[in-house]
Design goal:
Blueprint lengths: L5 E5 L9 H13 L2 E8 L2 H4 L6 H28 L4 E7 L3 H12 L3 E5 L5 H6 L3 H8 L4 E4 L9 E5 L10 H17 L3 E8 L18 H19 L9 E5 L2 H12 L3 E5 L7 H4 L2 H7 L5 E5 L23
Helix pairs in contact: 4-6, 9-11
Amino acid sequence: MFESKHILVAVADPGAKPSPAVSRALELALKTGARVTLFHSLYSPYVAGEQFYSPLDLQRDVETAVNARKSQLQRLARPLAAVGIAVHLRVRWDYPVHESIVREVLREKVDLLVIDSHRHGAAARMVLGNSDWQLIRLCPCPLLLVKMRDRYQRPRVVASIDPLHVHGKPAALDARLLATAAAIAETFGGRLHVAHFYMLAMPFATGFMVEPLPLPPEVAEQHSADVHAAFDALVGPYRLGPRQTHLRTGLPIDELPDLAQELDASIVVMGAVSRSGLRRLFIGSTAESVIDRLKCDVLIVKPEGFKTPVPRRAISRPVVFPPL
């Protein structure tokens, strides 16, 4: 069964209509018994940096803004409290938003972060200006990006694995992805699917004009055999039928969204890993490329022992008030 003790929902706009993320947290908490915290981060550099503010006036205005957001969160919390879920509210004056969320995850020992995910263009992804892209890179706990409003009714859960680790994934991460996806499927009475997409081996000539060279048939056959063997070794313990395993040639950015749509999947479970020392820039790049095209929820899982570079304390000390 899928286990969670503390779910944090990062609410971008507490004054908006109830979000899919809040509804999904309610659904998960009912199944797992987890407590839920609704979290909102706000900050105004104009207020914080205004030299004409007296300390008392600054404290008063910040407190007024924080309490207004808490009142809005209280409205969102009512459906959860009504069904017996332990729900807490937290508003922090902190910046930037994605780092504030990660600090709350670390501070409260959260084991699942849930956010609404909206479609973004290539430019937004390139400049890394969106909180969800940053959280894919920096959040140390599993991150559920909610894109569907429908409930998990016997969901099809797709685990996207990389058995030969050609994309830099540590071997243990695939086992973690499979175990997580299987637990979600079991918890909601759904069906587990496992997918891997790979490119056929093809050497290239070096020099000014790069051209593919013919590949001996036996080399291509051996590469394909190695992929199948590694895939079967990972999937074997789950005793899945042929319709639940999907080993295909192609790029994940093209094939995974198509498969998810073909299966009418409710959630895709995939990993995010660091491919270089510049962790902030390169972690989760495959996930980022795929996520825009997926119409279902996406659960991003990091390798065991991932350390976020986000400092536990903000550079400028935030003003914090106790929860309601």
